[in-house]
Design brief:
alpha/beta; 14 helices; binds uridine-diphosphate-N-acetylglucosamine
Length: 417
């Protein structure tokens, strides 16, 4: 129960289609709250985080309908401004409701959000950025209320380029009075997707894709039909799978333009990559190589979400690879699990991992304790001789529609248990 079984040790061959992006669909679902109309979102991934977000929208008063990967949100009626419970505490992205509800009704009471155990993940920057727009915060036990008499556009300079804070400011600013200038905004492609969605709905946002966003608040918003882009981290997962286990795969719809730093890292490690209009072909023809140093960075740098996936693939790359984590301080939690499988990884403080390539990994029982680390253990299972059982599948289901189906498409003997 709640596990994934893999009989590994074989190269990957085949093709699979890349699902819609988790980190794009979640803020866009929150943004639908700002629109007193009906929005239709296509290509939504069927993942548990989306399910939790839909439950929250329903609790707030939206009508939500789902048919396969198309989600309809009717936000003409908003009747509740308090959200709590597992849907909030189990998912970091519930924090997106903060900006959206402030924009829509000027107030929200919510439990502190949760999410993966990959670091402190405080919300101080969300609160201080919104504070610049006239929002007051009242804290209570386990929850807080954010209230704005009048949401005002402002000049906000972020001390770090936080993805979530950038998104929350955008959500509040499109309904605020006046212009908001957001400096040092994060540039992750999912922020671009959120801005495009809002623009199509009637919002006026300039500077999309750059580090300064200018948002003119108060424009009337109307319902739209919007397609969620493909997930660059899911595509990167299967890319790292073939880098680890060898073979030749095709990733249909992989969002290549957003994956440049991941592709560069894979090429450094020996992958041969060919890009076509329909996706990405990855082949491991020569022996893999260690990567002397790779650092996680904000976009367009190497994504922190790809870090553990790359680490798993490099465990059998001859030579010494070094990975430095600069975004989250607690993202090396899978090291112990990979060691159980025979990997040789040395941690130098909380930020640096030194990986000495071993000849092979051996399957055993390992435990996932967060989303991407869990997927990395599945990659390790594909690489390992014998059977690997990855426990706590539910963490992986937060972000992957069906990781077993996708790896089966690539020829892996993998199934849920
Ligand atoms: C988003 C992504 C997540 C990704 C991360 C970094 C979604 C749903 N999640 O998470 O997959 O790993 O970006 O690319 O899009 N910080 C503070 N105070 C705050 C907010 C953030 O100190 O109030 C710190 C965090 O602890 C972290 C850094 O800022 O060290 C970056 O975090 P942030 O960009 O906010 O990540 P998320 O939006 O939570």
């Amino acid at each position: 129960m709640d596990s994934i079984h893999i009989r590994g040790g074989n190269a990957l061959f085949g093709e699979t289609k890349i699902q819609g992006s988790k980190n794009a669909v979640l803020p866009i679902l929150a943004a639908a709250l700002l629109i007193e109309d009906v929005c239709v979102l296509e290509n939504c991934p069927r993942i548990s985080d989306v399910h939790h977000m839909l439950m929250l929208l329903e609790r707030i008063g939206c009508r939500v309908a789902r048919s396969d990967r198309t989600i309809t949100v009717d936000a003409r009626n908003v009747s509740e401004d308090t959200v709590s419970g597992e849907n909030v505490t189990g998912m970091r992205s519930s924090i997106m409701l903060l900006g959206a509800m402030l924009g829509r009704v000027g107030e929200i009471t919510m439990a502190y959000p949760g999410g993966c155990v990959i670091g402190e993940r405080p919300i101080d920057l969300h609160l201080s950025a919104l504070g610049r727009m006239g929002v007051k915060i009242y804290e209570d036990e386990g929850c807080f209320t954010a209230k704005a008499q009048k949401l005002e556009g402002s000049v906000i300079s972020l001390p770090i380029s936080s993805v979530g804070v950038t998104e929350n400011v955008i959500l509040a600013a499109v309904r605020a009075k006046g212009v908001t200038v957001l400096q040092n905004a994060a540039k992750e492609p999912e922020i671009g997707a959120l801005c495009e969605f809002l623009r199509e709905a009637g919002a006026v946002i300039e500077g999309i894709g750059g580090s300064v966003l200018i948002i003119q608040g108060g424009h009337e918003l109307h319902g739209v039909r919007f397609r969620i882009p493909a997930d660059r981290i899911v595509a990167g997962t299967y890319l790292m799978g073939v880098l680890g286990a060898g073979g030749h795969i095709f990733l249909e719809d992989a969002p290549v333009a957003q994956m440049q730093s991941t592709l560069r890292a894979a090429e450094l490690a020996g992958a041969e990559i060919n890009v076509s209009r329909d996706g990405l072909s990855v082949m491991i023809d020569v022996e893999k190589r260690a990567v002397p140093m790779i650092k996680t960075e904000v976009y367009p740098g190497f994504p922190t979400d790809m870090q553990s996936l790359l680490m798993a693939a490099l465990t059998t790359a001859p030579g010494v690879s070094v990975i430095e984590e600069t975004v989250f301080e607690n993202r090396f939690r899978i090291v112990e699990q990979l060691r159980k499988m025979g990997a040789c990884i040395e941690l130098q403080g909380k930020r640096q991992a030194v990986i000495v390539g071993v000849d092979l990994l051996l399957g055993c029982e390992v435990t996932a304790d967060e989303l991407r680390g869990g997927a990395a253990l599945v990659i390790a299972g594909c690489m390992a001789e014998g059977e690997t059982i990855v426990k706590n599948r539910h963490f992986i289901e937060r972000g992957y529609e069906d990781i077993c189906r996708d790896f089966q498409n690539l020829g892996v003997n993998i199934y849920t248990g």
